[in-house]
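Write out the bound-state structure for zinc ion.
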Amino acid sequence: MTIRAYRGEILSVARDPRHDPDAVRHEADGLLVIEDGLVVARGAYADLAARFAGVAVERLPGLIVPGFVDAHVHYPQMDRIASYGEQLLDWLERHIFPAEKAFASRALADSVAAAFLDELLRHGTTSALVFPTVHAHSVDALFATAEARRMRIIAGKVLMDLGPEGLADTPASGRAETEALIARWAGRGRLGYAVTPRFALTSSDAQLANAGAILAQHPHVLLHTHLAENVHECAAVARRFPEARDYLDVYDRFGLVGARSVFAHGVHLSDAACARLAASGAGIAVCPSSNLFLGSGFFNFGQADAHGVRLGLGTDIGAGTSFSMMHTAGLAYQAALARENRLDPFRALYLATAGSAELLHIADRVGALEPGQEADFVVLDDAATPLLARRTAGATLAERLFAMQILGDDRIIARTYLLGLVAWDRDAGRFAAGSG
Ligand SMILES: [Zn+2]
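---
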């Protein structure tokens, strides 16, 4: 048994601070004690020092926060980030489907999965809900690579029997491959499975019904898909499913709306859909950088909050433009403000950590650095650039956090820890053994 302790400034937001003013937990001089990868104690150094007097303590300069949880991201798209010129449906056809077809190669999947997980760690992201491709081996590649790094990753083979040639499965093959992958990977180590129809337009009714049947048989897996991202997409969904009340109702009719359902985007939702999301316990992975990049719109925090919809944050690479969950939190603030709502920096941090963890049903394991949780955390450097150093000098905690959300990128991530051990060290320019 290995006990190690880290001393420094610690901040976490375990619950939505809109509902719980005590959710923000901050120790200006804190101690984080870790045994076998789990947090066993956390509090003010002065309170804990005597109890752990025999334990070697390492001082960490910077602000220690929980590892970030990316609630929606596509690993096969990382090399198509910053692709010019189109909104969602044309962007998929022109840039993304060709890139995903290349994942017929397992070797390509292995190499991109490794590069992708390295990017997550360099940006302080320790857990994620990930879209692979339609190829079952794209899931194997991601899970095997994540398992070697001991990262908490949830993913599932993309179902898209109405996809373009070279990317289309069938209802039968999609179901059989999904069942086999669940048997192979679900619940293994830190890995989890999500049944992953791409979105309503890329699956037949038969395949959507299959997805519902698989979910019903495997109560521990998630449902992960896209919802109401783009106005042209919404119009096409309404044309294909004239009997559905709204876009969410399409999924509801196939048994895909429940407490373990994660829908990316939700930019264009009716009040009835928001009410149904809240009642079912399903939630939205808000993806502000993607919504801006593809011209999809601004997520309506006011509407979602009025209905009590569960929310997390996603980068949505490759439509998103940054792997940084801090930068994504800053863009969520700007999206909220565009609709005259406010997203304070502590709630934004909550959404990027414990909020997304709740959405992914892993909040008992990660997201808040509470005793009993896995010790995934990040050391933030609020003086990572000359401008940040000027802006944060003498500033309050809220001001420092907000400045990092607006101005930050991978440079603010001094270190990333997985299960209490260094996984990325910025100043050394090095990943831990087993990575990189
Ligand atoms: Zn997406």
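---
The pocket of zinc ion is lined by residues 72, 74, 226, 264, 316 (CB under 6 Å).
The two ends are 27 Å apart (CA to CA).
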